[in-house]
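During the no-cost extension, the postdoctoral fellow (Dr. R.K.) reprocessed legacy sequence entries with the updated structure-token encoder. One reprocessed record is reproduced below for audit purposes.
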Amino acid sequence: MKKKGKMRSGARARRNRKLVILSSIVAAAAVIFVLAITLYVIFGMGGQEAEAEPDSIQDVAIFEASFPEQDVVTEYLNKSIIDQIVGAGKTVTDTLQKRPKTVDMTDENRDTFVSIDNCLITDSKKVQIDCSSEGIPSSDDKYYYIFEEATYEDSIPEDAEPIAKGYKDEATSFTVSLNKGEADSRLFSKFTVAVKLDGKYVSVSHPKYITNPGACAPYSYGGMTHHSIKGILPDPLRISELSELNLSYCAYNIPLSHILTTSGGISYTYGGVTYHFNKGVVENYDNLFKKLNKMGIDIAAIVLNDASTSTYPEFTHPDARKGSSAPYYMFNAATDGGVKAVAALGSFLAGRYSGSGHGNVSMWIFANEVNARKEYNYMSYVDVNTYSIAFTRAFRVFYNSVLSQNSAAKVYFSLDQRWTLNSSTKSGDYNAKDVLDILSTSIREYGNIDWGLAAHPYSYPNGATAFWKSSKYTTHSVTTPVISMDNLEVLTDYMQREDMLDTSGNVRSIILSEMGYSSTSGETLQAAAFAYAYSIMEKNGHIDALMLSRQTDASDEIRALGLALGLQTTGGKHKYIYNVFKYIDTDKRKDVISFAYDIVGKEFD
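Re-encoded structure tokens follow.
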């Protein structure tokens, strides 16, 4: 009896072991089956996406049909195992049915098949690139590839290698290193998505730049709170006199020839290159800016490229290094050396004047009257699109370098008053409207940023102080030849168009970084013109700051142009406009501007 019992016990053990083994085999087979289907569809066919989906698993009967010994299945496979296998199969089927369709690209849609929706700095050290598409493009393999292009490149370089890759999907994200300040920094690069076609990398997206450079900034200085928009171009020899003028803003020039030196001074290494800044001159700026800040004045620094093209060639565009006696030149973003130089310049200045104890600058103006090619932003004559794109590329480099140091800074470019006039004069300069349109369109297409406009709505000619008088140059139409204070609304209305709005859908910051009237035709006329212009600006509501040109008459302007624009003479004698300027934003406003009503021909306040 004991022997028989032992035999029964051994049989049960062997039977249980069979059950476990068989169940394990079947479960493993089911897992392998599911994985095989998944891997085949995703990675099969030599890397191509599957075009057809497998039939759905119907029911347990199909599974059981694979096992001729029905009693083995029913005895050794319980229902829960079978349900798991069937459920897994259905899950795979459902997933396969939801996969995006593979799409054959055409010549018309290949360059923009994929959209780069965001190109953003994350945690100050990484760049996240978010992409989307409708369907998955057919290609040699299953990957998207991310390429980096320099700002001066218009396509993927032939010998370039991808900096990231990932599986193709309708929504895909990539992360790459930012490398801020290093020789291989990507802060000024644009990124594009590519696939492999016939063994070659082919772009399938429009390139995009990083659009939030402030995410890696150590400072965030956006300026002070002010009660008025009043500002001026100061006289550096009479800075102490500004305290009584009740100012909010000052504009001040920073020419490169003043701050650069070939060796010694303040060494600044950026992008793997060491630059040298004149220590004494820079410290003079430190003292000036700190003094103005203590007076409650915010600063708009105007960065001007007057650098010697032989001593500092990297700062100047290759097509601007000869052939002109203009005082300022097109900045260089056409070469690697130029991009690094402009980036180092913006980084050095913004880093020094945004909270490091050397004084603060909240507004940066890059170059002067950009549409005035011959006079203030020289480059050999080319079509307006080529010229404007050359400036736009340099502007974005400067913008990203400034914002990467001070996230709250504002960066502007300036235009003169010739809105459409240059089309008829054939002066060799460009219309302000054309340059504005091209810059705005290009920046929006490559990744919108919050640039600002610094306008110069002088009368035309500049000596026409009574700007309110009828003139063929100023109309209230968008096609007006000139924008002066008489038709300022043409500019601000234009900036309210949807395609001109900033990244938050708001009207961009607009400042009048130069505006003024000459006293050559009389001091009271000059004062009346300013009073009326100030009233127009306030009522307009879209002007953030006004920089009157200037505190003191400039003798060279008087000699060359017959313009005496200051509040005081070269000898320091106050003109009639002085008290108008001083009190126009106080409770004495009415007292100091009422004289102008008869001159202008109406009450305007």
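The longest strand covers residues 115-122. The chain has three domains: 12-99, 110-209, 230-258+299-350+363-600. The remaining legacy entries will be reprocessed before the final report is submitted.
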